[in-house]
Amino acid sequence: MLRILYLEDDPDDLELARLALKRDGLHCEVHGVASREEFSRAMEGDPPDVILSDGSVPGFDGFDALAMARRRMPEVPFILVSGAVTPELDQRSRRGGAVGCVPKDELARLAPSIRLAVSAARASKKSG
Question: Is there a contact between 117 and 79 (Cβ–Cβ < 8 Å)?
Fold first, then answer.
């Protein structure tokens, strides 16, 4: 079972993502956090298999979360899940170390993105 850490302040969006992953048959446990403090505490435990982050939560954004994740868990794939994905946002997130972005209105892309990211991370760990 994949363990997913998801920074998302909207409980409805969190549930929609969980439903999309279930619908796609991804066997996972999604641990939702809604603030910088919760995200930081979650980063103190065992690393998840993948980190998802909303583009913006009050007082904290996906790029802050990305920077924190790269410092604390650089081996864990990070995917930005945002309401407004543009080519510029995707490029900026990749430059920061994310493996990609998924628009919230295209959650059918989330499970394939997670599978690809986790597979690549595991292959990298085996070869490294």
Answer: yes
| CATH number of residue 92's parent domain | 3.40.50.2300
What's the angle, vertex CA 36, arms to CA 32 and CA 40, rounded to 5? Answer: 80
3-state helix, strand, coil in the chain (%, to 5): 50, 25, 25
Q: Please determine, for residue 100, whether its predicted confidence score (pLDDT) is greater than 80.
A: yes
100 DSSP 8-state letter: E
Is 70 exceeded by the pLDDT of residue 128? no
- Predicted structure pTM score: 0.95
- Which of 97, 113, 18 has the alpha carbon at shortest distance from 65? 97
Tally Cβ neighbours within 10 Å of residue 125.
Answer: 9
Domain that holds residue 122: 2-127
The average pLDDT across 20-31 equals 97
Total structural domains in the chain? Answer: 1
